[in-house]
């Protein structure tokens, strides 16, 4: 399993959190997704066949692009 914590500046409400969690958790191989409005941070844990590139592409597609440190 891989895990990544990153910031999504576009998170502004609980609806944003739900959209991110629902869309990313639909990716095959994603074990967990936790997003927070107050910190604008997202923690994703995944394994095969998911990849960071696929997760990032999904976030960009739904207009919540990650800001990588």
Describe the structure.
The model has no long low-confidence stretch (mean pLDDT 96). The protein is built from two helices and three strands, in the order βαββα. The two termini are 20 Å apart. Strand 2 and strand 3 (41-46) form a beta hairpin. The chain has a three-stranded antiparallel β-sheet, covered by helices on one side. It is of the alpha+beta class and 69 residues long.
Task: Describe the secondary-structure layout.
Blueprint: E1 2-7, H1 14-25, E2 30-35, E3 41-46, H2 52-61
Antiparallel strand pairs: 1-3, 2-3
Number of helical segments? Answer: 2
What is the radius of gyration?
11 Å
- The average pLDDT is 96
Distance between the termini: 20 Å
Residues in β-strands, percent: 25-35%
* Low-pLDDT stretches: none
Largest sheet: 3 strands, antiparallel
Q: What is the number of beta strands?
A: 3
Assign a percent range to the helix content.
25-40%
Helix/sheet category: alpha+beta
Tell me, what's the shape?
Answer: globular
- What sequence of helices (H) and strands (E) makes up the elements? EHEEH
Strand order of the largest sheet: 1-3-2
């Amino acid at each position: 399993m891989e895990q990544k914590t990153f910031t999504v500046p576009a998170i502004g409400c609980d609806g944003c959190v739900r959209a991110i969690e629902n869309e990313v958790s639909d990716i095959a191989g994603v074990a967990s997704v936790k997003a927070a409005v107050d910190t604008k941070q997202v923690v994703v844990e995944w394994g095969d066949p998911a990849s960071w590139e696929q997760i990032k592409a999904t976030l960009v597609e739904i207009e919540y692009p990650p800001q990588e440190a």
